[in-house]
Amino acid sequence: MEYRTLGHSGLKISALSMGTFSFAGRGDFAMVASQGVKEAQRLVDVCIDGGINVFDTANMYSLGGSEEILGEVLEGRRDRILISSKARMRIGDGPNDEGVSRYHLIRECERSLKRLRTDHIDIYFMHEWDGLTPLEEMLSALDTLVQQGKIRYIGCSNYSGWHIMKALRVSELKNYPRFVTQQIHYTLEAREAEYELLPISVDQGLGAMVWSPLAAGLLSGAFGRNKTPADSRQAAGWSEPPIRDQERLWNIVDVLDDIARVRGVTPAQVALSWTLSRPGVTSLVVGGLTEQHFRDNMAAVDVKLSSDELGRLNEVSRLPYLYPYWHQHNFAKERFCAGDWALHADYEDLGKV
User: Fold this and answer.
1) What residues make up the domain containing 263?
2) Predicted pLDDT of residue 102
3) Within 90-160, where are the H helices?
4) How many domains does the chain have?
5) Do the beta carbons of residue 207 and residue 180 sit within 8 Å?
6) Global pTM?
7) Do 288 and 23 form a contact (C-beta atoms < 8 A)?
8) pLDDT given at position 239
9) What pLDDT shows up at residue 32?
10) Active site residue 347
11) Are residues 225 and 333 in the same domain?
C-alpha cells in the first residue's frame, strides 16, 4: 500500500480508503447492500491486511447503522486505524436535524462517537454546503470539538470552489481550524472537479479524497452498452451519479477495457490508477460487496499507466474547455502556477482555441 500526506497536515493516509456506505443497509441504502457485522468484519480484515488505514462513514449512512457496525468491528484495534465521518445531512424530522449549526454539529459528533465506540474522529467532514448557517458558527463549533479532543482534522465534501475559499478565509481571519481535505466525486466519467476543486486542492493544500471513484461500478468492467448486472444498485433504482452522456460513458469504458486487456489487469484497476495519478488526489474511497472486490481495488495502487495510456484516457474523457479557461490558455500560460496546471495540463496539446 502507498501512503500519502493529507493536504497541509502531517497525517499519512493510505492511497485507498475503505468506504462503509453499504454497512447495515437501512432504507434506501439497501439498494447498495445490507452488510451485517460478520460480513463487514471480513471485509474490514481484508482491507487492514492490505494496508488500508482509513475507514470512511457518515452519520446518515443507514441513519447511523454504518457507524454502529464499523465501531463494533474495529473494537480492540482502534489505535491502528483512522476513522473519517461526516455530518450535515438530514437525520430526522425536527427543524434542527440537519445543517451545520453549533447545535447540530456538536450533538451529531457526540452521537457518532457513541456509535463508533471511540473517543475521537480523525477526520470530520462537513457532508454538504449549508448556506443558511454562518461559516463563523460552523467553524467555531468545529474548533470547540477540536479543543475537546473529539475530532482531529476537518474537511468539507461536495462544496463548490467559492464555498471552500470563503471558509478558508474565515478560518484565517478568526484563527479557527482549517480544512485539510475535501471529499469529492471525481472519475474519468465525471471530471468537473478539474475546473475548480482540484486546482484549489493543489493551491490551498486540501488533499482530495474521492468518493465513488468507479462511478458506482459503471467503470468497473461489469457494465457495458448492453450489460447491467441484475444485482447492481442501478438495477435496483439507484440513480447516483447522474450520467448525462451515455455514449461518452461507453466510449470511456471501451478504452478502459482495451487498456486492461493489453495490460492483463481489470478495467477497475485502470480507472483507479488514472484517478490516483491526478493532481491533488490523496486517497480513493472504495467500496465493495465481496473480499475480491477490495483485493482487486487495492491492486490498482501498483498499476502505473504509461503516458500513452494516460493520453488515450484523457482524449476520450476530457471535458469542454470552458470560459475563462480557454481564454487563460490563449493568453496566460506563461504565468500559470501549479494550481492552474492542475486543469490546463490536459489541454496542452491544443493550439490557440
Assistant:
1) 3-315
2) 98
3) 102-116, 135-147
4) 2
5) yes
6) 0.95
7) no
8) 66
9) 76
10) no
11) no
